[in-house]
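User: Please run a holo structure prediction.
Assistant: Happy to. Please share the sequence and the ligand.
User: Here you go; the ligand is NAP.
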Amino acid sequence: MTDKIAIIGFGNIAKAIITPLLDEKLIKPDDVYCVVKTERSFENIKKNYKYNINVYQSGSEESKIIWDCKVKLLSVKPQHLKDVIEVDDIKIKDNLIVSILAGVSINRLTQKFPNHKCVRVVTNIPITIGKGLTGIAWGEDLTEDQKKFTKKLFENTSKIYEFTEDYLDIFLALTSSGPAIIALIIEALSDGGLSGGLPKILSEELVMEMILGTTSLIKENKLTTSELKNLVTSPGGTTIAALRVLEKKSVRSALIESIVSASNRSKEFR
Ligand SMILES: NC(=O)c1ccc[n+]([C@@H]2O[C@H](COP(=O)([O-])OP(=O)(O)OC[C@H]3O[C@@H](n4cnc5c(N)ncnc54)[C@H](OP(=O)(O)O)[C@@H]3O)[C@@H](O)[C@H]2O)c1
């Protein structure tokens, strides 16, 4: 894929992106240069990571070597971005930063890393099992090779969607915050099962299988959500009794607002 790649922040998401590429031998461990902040993470990667990659602690003299890599995956938490400082004497050309930081705009990235072209990417936690969704907004003047390389980083583990940057906040709200919303729904429905006398584990399993089955049915039979709803809602039956409660408690509106709110929060990080 490339000669060398630097990973600035080798946490959960960065590992989920890079490990499959190492598994597939698309990158060699020798060519991966990662930086982490704490000694604990540094030692942990050295001792326990399944590949023998180059690892450095941020702030150390040796860690400056990462700026010799043409491509950098930026994967620190947004609040730690201020601590990542581009070195003055970058010798190579056509440098690329692929940022997965929630909400941080291409404009801010370009100002912070003036010697780099920047790409903003939003991905989500199911990337850790190869079922992620990744949205990409390209910065200015990227070469075709840089775009191809960026897509290669994510295409093994996720479906890729290309957007203009304005759509990334709402994409993030739906896909990146979405898993937490779904987890809350699973938990709440399972508690409903628990209230009806089912053991917790069984109740949770039933809810998850029901969600998987319902999603597959909608997709495979190309149903609209209204068609699916009508299929299981008979006059005066149990389902309309359940839906009535949800409407009375404004659950639909709460879910819409939750997504708008997550998107607005993402805009605040800019
Ligand atoms: N979690 C999600 O669902 C999700 C989904 C999509 C995108 N994202 C984005 O992905 C990014 C990383 O998230 P994560 O969940 O992978 O976080 P994480 O597991 O906490 O990883 C962050 C990494 O950054 C390192 N770090 C901190 N300060 C640093 C510095 N100054 N220089 C170099 N490395 C530094 C940390 O090192 P130490 O371990 O030593 O502190 C750690 O390795 C975030 O910006 C987030 O917005 C997250």
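Residues 8-14, 35-38, 41, 58, 75-78, 80, 83-84, 100-102, 123-125, 176 surround NAP (CB under 6 Å).
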